Amino acid sequence: EHLFNLKFAAKELNRNSKKCDKEEKAEKAKIKKAIQKGNMEVARIHAENAIRQKNQAINFLRMSARVDAVAARVQTAVTMGKVTKSMAGVVKSMDATLKSMNLEKISALMDKFEHQFETLDVQTQQMEDTMSNTTTLTTPQNQVDTLLQEMADEAGLDLNMELPQGQTGSVGTSVASAEQDELSQRLARLRDQV
User: Fold this and answer.
1) Residue 83: CB partners within 8 Å, gap ≥ 6?
2) How confident is the chain (194 residues) per 10-residue block, as mean pLDDT?
3) I need a surface site. Which of 27, 40, 62, 153 has the fewest CB within 10 A?
4) Is the C-alpha dihedral spanning 60, 63, 65, 67 positive or negative?
5) Buried b (16+ CB within 10 A) or exposed e, 141-166
6) Which DSSP category does 172 fall into?
């Protein structure tokens, strides 16, 4: 029962990790849209959310691996208990066989004994593999800027990270004032015609 609960918990953690991966992709799409609209503040917020989702996915995956490792240890312990019982039975049978000195029976018992140990070796190796696959990961400080640049590149936009926020606002203002000047000139020409 405990083994089942451990395996279920590992699957649940794995599902949560995949859910965070989907959330990360959604946040990346929002980053692209915000960059295309020129709204760097919103893009930065979505980048932070994407990185948080990525880290959460890694943490869920790490916990899933740890629970899997515990489940493997429990499985090994259960198997060891079974092997011990089987070995006790084999030893009793060997005692009886050795007394009768029937070589065929001794050979069959030795084969069975070796098979039990091979099974145990395979399960122990599987547990060790699971444990060695558990890794840790640290997050560099510049991830947000790197992610913003990647999303801008994918969207086909030039993202100038060196410009302060005030300058990007003045570029938008100068475009608006140029449009205002053009409208004023058209209005003046209409007045001249009348």
Assistant:
1) 116, 117, 119, 120
2) 83 93 94 91 92 92 88 82 77 72 72 75 68 47 76 70 41 54 68 68
3) 153
4) negative
5) eeebeebbeebbeeeeeebeeeeeee
6) H
